[in-house]
Amino acid sequence: MSHPLIPYIDGASYEIPIPFLDFINPQHPPSIKPFGTLVAIGVYVGSMLTLKRARERHLDEKVFNDFIFWVVATGFVLSHMLDAVFYHPTRVAADPVYLIRIWDGLSSYGGFVGALVGGLAWRLYRRRPILEYVDITVSAFPLAWVFGRAGCSIVHDHPGALSNAWYAVKYPASQLVRGYEGRVDLGFIEFALTIPLALACHLLWKKRPLRASGFYVGVTLTTYAPVRFLLDFLRVEPTDIGRVVEADPRYAGLTPAQWMCFAALACGLYFVAKTRGGDYLRTAELAAPEDDAADPADEAAGADEADEADEAGASSDGDDPTR
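User: That's the sequence. What structure does it adopt?
Assistant: Structure tokens below.
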């Protein structure tokens, strides 16, 4: 008989109080926690890698920074709000203020939807195409996601079914029932599975930096959606007598994330088909010559690419919804 091999790290018990923010919520004042710290590191690392890849394509870094700000800010806000509405509707009904406590609970798909909303809002406001910006950002996203899911794995905010499998986590006895030595920890499993995805995106970029825009959107979504759909069947059930957290609500037998997986997979397959065998076409704004420290020969090549993109854009439908 197998036994759980993953130790239980009680990361949720470690935090640094922030006294001057007590007024926000005196009973549960904000503090610096391992989860938030790892998420912040992930956002920073992901943003830096995104900007590095933007520079490799000689894109305007200021414009890209502006795009990232809109995406990250909207992503965080809607990540919490959608988590509150779809995962904790009774809590919102009892305490409407919970809806704006953006530090108290996040949803991965809520963040994805928020990032999409932020990107589309930026496109409308700045009047610029976004697909190339989105694709470069998504190419760096798995690395940031590794840090985010590492945070989930040490605070155990995604406990799953009772299990004695070797990949289960040795939860405290108080959180188990007789006959079981552990639980599946979905945060830890997703953390482990995201590492090869991050490595794959890195190697794909190194092998061929210039790919059709939308390539990484397709690769990431078609990889993540099926895995997440299957993993959610291992989440704590409402009938689990030993559950340690509120069970995720089910809608027609599926979690909110599982329903989102259908849309994510459809979007991913669309971009896989769209970019298959396609060539890179620049649609994002080039950096100004005085801000670009690249070799002059590279600048000339970039200018030629921009001219080709302009010619192609002039002969295509300017309202292409994929931009």
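The radius of gyration is 22 Å.
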